[in-house]
Amino acid sequence: MKKKSKKMKCVLHLKAFLLIILLLAGLVSGSIGEERTYMVENNPEKNQQRYPYRVVTDSAVLYLSRDDIELLGEEKFYAGLELLLAGMEKDFAEVREVLKDYLKDEVPSIPIYTDFAGRAEEAQLSDAFYYDPDMGIRLFKGWDDAGYSLLHEYVHFLTDVCVTFGISHGFWAEGIAEYLSKLVCSNRMARAFNYAMSDEFAAGMIARGAGDAEGKIDIRKVYYGGAAIYNTPITVGEKYFAVCNSWMHMTETQQEHPTMMSVTYHQAACVVEYLVKKFGKDYVFTHMDGTAKEFKEAYGQEFEELFGEWKAENMKMCERIHMAIY
Questions:
Q1: What is the mean pLDDT of the chain?
Q2: In 271-308, which positions are buried (b, 16+ CB within 10 angstroms) versus exposed (e)?
Q3: Can you tell me the distance from the alpha carbon of 318 to that of 314, in angstroms, rounded to the nearest whole number?
Q4: Highest taxon of the source (predicted)?
């Protein structure tokens, strides 16, 4: 990439100044209901060259990449930002409320970075990624996928440093992140971006039974159906992303003998939900640390056996809600 001229830098700074003026005038804003307006401001921190602007909220600091603004264009970039901010604080507050009995102290602010440009390798594995409290959450694939994934990554942050219980990576970490963000909380961000689905794909899912009373996508039905379909012959040979954070190919052996590290994200979320219904939230949330041996000690069954119970129950649920899985 060519080095930007002084003239180009001046233009960018002028645009930022004009944007701030518009925000102050109330012409461009993102709000949570009518409670608060979020302002784009110049970033005074050391990372300002890459992230010249930021938005400070009660729960996070969003750092806005110069390259991403140029990639999408200002109008599209800030429209996506506003749509995300319209639900972010309520979503974050809602999941904290679910976990309130397990939070250590006051939850610190989390840095969130837009990294849409030049992160193709990371984007192969995830839409977004939580690294640690200092590096924060990175958004790799644009606003649609950010809206779908951000609450999931925020749960990772909470379960990493803010809760009193231990949690293992893989099945437990991904399972609770998906369970809370897709099956428990409202996830306004994901709904605002139509769960990163194209209109055509969403219409197809609704036609197969995944709609709600308003004719919109019901993400819970999508999850029950999505979890079920990977237990059927139609997906044998299909590539999928497992909770071990690796791409795998579905096999008959995997379907017949699933392990804690080989199931899909949909399956992990639904199994965690099944465990919560069977054993209670308090018990499950304090028994999420360990491998297959610890799983059997905590729940009295091998993972494969309990997975089989859930699978049968999930198929019945799909029939009750008329969720076609083929």
A1: 87
A2: bbbbbbeeeeeeebbebbebeeeebeebbeeebeebbe
A3: 6
A4: Bacteria
Residue 207 corresponds to which tokens in the numbers above? Answer: 């036609």
Instruction: Tell me the residue type at 297.
Output: E
d(CA 157, CA 108): 10
Q: pTM for the complete prediction?
A: 0.85
Q: Say whether pLDDT at 33 is over 70.
A: no
Only one residue has tokens 């993972």, namely: 303
pLDDT band at 124 (very low <50, low <70, confident <90, very high): low
The answer to whether the beta carbons of residues 67 and 118 sit under 8 Å apart is yes
DSSP assignment of 106-140 equals SPPPEEEEE--TT-HHHHTT-SEEE--TTT-EEE-
Rounded (10°) angle between helices 265-279 and 171-178: 80
Q: Which positions ≥6 away from 49 have C-beta within 8 Å? A: 66
Element (H, E) at 103: none
**How crowded is residue 20: how many other Cβ atoms within 10 Å of its Cβ?**
16
**Domains, the chain, ordered by start:** 31-164 (3.40.30), 167-326 (no CATH)
Q: Where do the DSSP E strands lie in the chain? A: 30-32, 36-38, 40-42, 53-56, 60-64, 110-114, 128-130, 137-139, 239-241, 247-249
